[in-house]
Amino acid sequence: MMSPNHEEPRYSSPTSPLPAEAADQLRMCIETANELLRTLSIRRDPNFFYRLMLRLRELRGRLVRVDVECQEEPHHLLGLLQDVGRDFIRLNQVGQSVFVPFPRLAKLTRETSAEQEAAHGMSGGGHHGAELADADPELRRNLVLNFGRVVSCSPELINLFLGIPLYLQLLHHVGNKVVVVTAGDEVKGVLCESEAGRIQVRTGEQVLEQVKLQEICYLKLLH
Fold first, then answer.
1. How far is CA 66 from the centre of its chain?
2. Cα–Cα distance, 104 to 97 (Å, whole number)
3. Which domain of life is it from (predicted)?
4. Is 47 exposed, middle or buried (0-12, 13-18, 19+ CB in 10 A)?
5. In the CATH scheme, what is the code of domain 166-222?
6. Residue 45, Cα to own-chain centre: how many angstroms?
7. Tens digit of pLDDT per residue, the chain (223 long)?
8. H, E, C per residue of 110-178
9. Could you confirm whether domain 10-119 is CATH 2.30.40.10?
10. Distance, CA of 54 to CA of 133 (rounded, Å)
11. Beta bridge pairs of residue 11
């Protein structure tokens, strides 16, 4: 967890020749996220995490560098900010996805300019309307007529509208190979179970290891 003398969490972003309105919006997003991250170590209520989730979602599709609070020195991760859940972010790296719980998030920095991101086919700032614009017409119709039933059957839709907690997100990856990094250990194996408060990883034929969610610095999901 964060130490009292830990460097103040913050976002930073390289200067890029964005249009004035877009630059102002990005700057406002970063400033708001800064304020939220400064109090992350003492604010753990659901409403606070929800506000943080919404702000971080505005940076989806960006190539970012993340400093993860783990042991004495932070771990540095580089990847595409794929998604943000109720209490975690998900980075895309070559051959794997990385889940980082909010409480372990120390610093997040944009690594490229908007022009470089566009050249690599990256874009950010998604919202409900934009993400559903290209949805199948039948899906949109079912969302109107049977919203609760349709959304409850899809972790992607649950996260889009409500924000999904990490343990529920991981539940949909049971059976996949994972690497779980904690402050004092690294657990490699197959994810066997995920529930509120803990996960279970099969590290050998007859060996099951439990890891508390609060102990996870980050989790790599191998593709």
1. 11
2. 16
3. Bacteria
4. exposed
5. 2.30.30.100
6. 18
7. 444 444 544 444 444 445 566 666 656 665 666 566 665 655 566 677 888 888 888 888 888 888 899 988 889 999 999 999 999 999 999 999 999 999 898 888 777 655 555 544 455 454 454 566 566 788 778 777 777 787 777 778 777 877 899 999 999 999 999 999 999 899 999 999 999 999 999 998 889 999 999 999 999 999 8
8. ECCCHHHHHHCCCCCCCCHHHHHCCCCHHHHHHHHHCHHHHHHCCHHHHHHHCCCCHHHHHHCCCCCEE
9. no
10. 19
11. 108
Measured in residues, the chain has a length of 223
Number of H helices and E strands in the chain, helices first, is 8, 11
Which pair of tokens denotes residue 14? 């390289």
Q: Where are the domains of the chain?
A: 10-119, 128-155, 166-222
> Which phi and psi (to 5°) does residue 201 adopt?
-125, 130
pTM over 0.90, yes/no: no
Residue of 52, 103, 53, 108 whose CA lies nearest to 80: 108
